[in-house]
Predict the structure.
Amino acid sequence: MVQVRLWGSLASAIGDQTEVEIEAGTLGELLEGLAERYPALRPQLDRGVSVAIDGLLYNDSWFTPIKEDSEVVLLARLEGG
Amino acid sequence: MALGSKRDTSKRDFKIVGTRPLRPDGIDKVTGRARYGADMSAPGMLVGLVLRSPHAHARIKSIDTSRAEALTGVHAVVTRADFGDVEDAATADTLDNCMAGAKALYDGHAVAAVAAASDAVAKQALKLIEVEYEPLPHVTDVDEAMAPGAPVLHEGRTDETVPQGMSANVISRCQFGHGDIEAGLAKADRVLKRTYRTEATHQGYIEPHACLASMGPDGQADLWCCTQGHYMVRNTCAAILGLEQGKLRVTASEIGGGFGGKTTVFLEPVALMLSKKAGRPVKMVMTRSEVLRATGPTASSSIDVRIGMTKDGRITAGFAELRYQGGAYPGSPVNMGAMSAFAPYDLENVRTIGWDVVTNRPRQAAYRAPGAPIAAFAVESAIDELAKGFGLDPLEVRLKNAAREGTRASYGPTYRAIGLEATLRTAKDHPHWTAPLGPNQGRGVACGFWFNFGGDTCVSLNITPDGTVTLTEGNPDIGGSRASMSMMAAEELGIPYDKVRTVIADTGSLGQNEVTDGSRVTFAVGLATIEAARAAKREMCRRAAKVWGIDEEAVVWEDGAAKPSGPNAGEFPPMTLEEIAAIASNTGGPIAGHFEVNAEGAGVSFATHMVDTEVDPETGAVRVLRYTVFQDAGKAVHPDYVEGQFQGGAAQGIGWALNEEYIYGEDGTLQNPGFLDYRIPVASDLPMIDTVILEIPNPGHPYGVRGVGETSIVPPLAAVANSVSDASGVRLTDLPLSPPKVLAAIQSR
């Protein structure tokens, strides 16, 4: 199980849970698991999120491995200029 | 420390990376040989022009183009009726921004376009298009747009994060942070509560938007344009026009500045549609007025801040509520402002709330570290005021609260190795910090943070028969990437820099490449370049092994040559890249390396800026006397370009702080759509901007590279405001700090 930290707006959507646990070994499994287990997160997940895994930023690479003790933080989708 | 100094904390001993070779595009750019967007032409080319709304907000009741179409020399007229529906909401907004649908949403919004044999005929044709408008109430201010009863731009765009009962102009809400704000504030010796405002500013690129479109009767099309990302242009235009992406080939011109403003399309779908209807190539070039009225700018904002601090300078809690208007469509960068506002600090209690709001202004476009400079202005101003109120050194206060490796960031993750503390300590040791100041002069400092990104990247590295190397990449060269890529390829291959030429390919020549944005190119394209060079080296080792008749595992690559290695490899003289290239045809055919990746794992970066200003107490005019940038680059591949990015960010931030603003009249029309009235700083306005490069390697890149293009614009708004506040003796909270505003503040002391 991976501990996932949610930002405030996402936490509000699921009863102010700031951390949830998901069975996932990759980034793709994590996002899919979140959407399945917490349908209220789906609108934001569909709009796009970024994910910090052990302090590094990821967007779309489904097969990025996540270890059980990894720090995983969902972030609003990042865009640059 | 010398001007333009560099403090090297990286371990690897580089031979080419870190040096300052001549830029490969320099001669073309100073002789006029370089081709920009407006330099493209084609046989039979027509001139395309756009008719724009004179109203800030109006229903378009009808458009009669018949008289324009009947004019001799006019080959096509397009309106929104020529475009089909687009399913994706963001792309539909892009289409609506390129060509208005039911409503004109801002002064300058495109409502029709013509293609004609000459500029004069096209201008005449625009006058013959009859648009019947029903003017509607408008709103251009973010706080007014959020108020109940404000004129509403769109119904039904508010998302699930917005509480019921708010204006339909409020599109979304975001919240970040951790801890208990009220408990933290209760521990403070002083709680500062302030409201800050910033105005919209344009990216101010010198080259206006321009493109040349040619669509054939078979549905295949070519487009040449000035952009930060021609793959994005291809994909967006294909979606808008219902084309298959492979049928549209886009070639990027040289680019005279972008800064985020060229990460979307404005003219390109219109030019393609005009070309399709006319059956001829169509060229479109914006005027400066069109650029200012209808492209960019960044968001404007109002921000409430509450920060608690103990008398020894420890921040006990930080709170900010940020309201950004991003023009007529959803998508202001408030979420990134909210994430980055307190990112430089190690805080037990921190919370930010952001509101994305629409107004009757042009759709905002990204501008270097979108959203972050605005948020940093508010937070860094408040920290400065608190520090000064306690009589504390503002650098020491920042050091006391600085985020370090292991700090939980205000936006969630735990930082790896970061360079904020190094920038602060270097700033404190720099002679600028202790230099004397004269009457009416002040000094300000501020910190800034940016995320940096990676993304889809594709490069091809080809060994030519004579042993020179061509590197093909898919990102327009905005900040010196051709030089940086050539350097990284040469470093990896062990050959001289001038043996590598980097070219920017069209969309038909490589796979998908993300836009040149997010400070991603030196990181992501550099990573792909290094891996492509490594692939080519492996192949060259394999070829040498075949020639020598030994196992390829017994061959290594050193100093630009294959060498036998290991006890049983045998005695062979090194075989150079040139020698291997010369016999490539005999050993298996052409040699190339390529690499395709979604380059994730970019490293965040920090900067500290220091600025001295002098305020004229009789006029309120501000002069920038001295400016020093301290920033972590991870690894500076070509330090000249890194310093240029630092200086450019500082210069644009100074303009944002002191002069630049979108000024709207009572009728909602832009009052200053030209560089005479929209005043960006020019060379004579600024001192030489000193730079200090710090190098704390990014563990996510083979050479330790972080992005550098955006962080440099994050601190200057606050640094300048802190400096002017120090010089004038009065705290200034509304940007820009134009002379009337500063004078009024001085007189109210």
Observations:
- Residues 521-548 of chain B form the longest helix (28 residues).
- Chain B is about 30% helix and 25% strand.
- Chain B has three domains: 43-136+208-255+262-294, 300-452+603-747, 455-599.
- The mean pLDDT of chain B is 96.
